[in-house]
């Protein structure tokens, strides 16, 4: 190694000398400082926008509760709810509230279909009263639970009458 380079740089190991004459390219500076500016802007927006995951969760839960705990307004106006309630009136059971509390989470409001079967169309096991009663009471496969333990036979009959009117 020459004496000229040794005099110029004090720090070296094993004869390797660092030469710092060449600066990084311009795009490196643009990307580096651009990232810093973007990070500051994003952080300011996140902090001052008022968004929070808790608020988003509460809004989604309020929408879910509004959708699945209240009777479907379209079904009430079309008379489907009135005929189902008339069929269950003899036993004094509100079939719409039974449906909303036990079935609507999977089958959707008014039977329009959630992730489970659409109850307004054809049924896989038949759309007669006996097949529907069997499906509700015993369940179907792993996806549809049986409700014999949680619903009385009068409540199951009220649900059958309601589903036949959909």
TrEMBL record:
Source domain of life: Bacteria
Gene Ontology terms for molecular function: electron transfer activity; heme binding; iron ion binding
Location of the Cytochrome c domain: 87-166
Native source organism of the sequence: Pelovirga terrestris
Annotated transmembrane regions: 26-48
Keyword tags: Electron transport, Heme, Iron, Membrane, Metal-binding, Transmembrane, Transmembrane helix, Transport
Gene3D superfamilies per record: 6.10.280.130, Cytochrome c-like domain
Protein name: C-type cytochrome
InterPro entries xrefs: CcoP_N_sf, Cyt_c-like_dom, Cyt_c-like_dom_sf, Cyt_C_IC, Cytochrome_c550/c551-like
């Amino acid at each position: 190694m020459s004496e000229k380079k040794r005099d110029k740089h004090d720090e070296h190991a094993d004869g390797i000398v660092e030469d710092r004459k060449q600066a990084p390219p311009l795009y490196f500076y643009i990307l580096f400082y651009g990232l810093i500016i973007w990070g500051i802007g994003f952080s300011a927006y996140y902090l001052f926008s008022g968004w929070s995951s808790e608020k988003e969760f509460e809004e989604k839960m309020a929408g879910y509760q509004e959708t699945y705990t209240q009777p479907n307004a379209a079904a009430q106006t079309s008379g489907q709810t009135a005929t189902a309630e008339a069929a269950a009136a003899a036993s004094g059971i509100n079939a719409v509230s039974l449906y909303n509390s036990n079935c609507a989470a999977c089958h959707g409001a008014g039977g329009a279909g959630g992730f489970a079967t659409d109850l307004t169309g054809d049924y896989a096991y038949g759309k007669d009263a006996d097949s529907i009663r069997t499906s509700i009471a015993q369940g179907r496969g792993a996806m549809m639970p049986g409700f014999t333990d949680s619903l009385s036979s009068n409540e199951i009959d009220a649900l059958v009458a309601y589903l036949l009117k959909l």
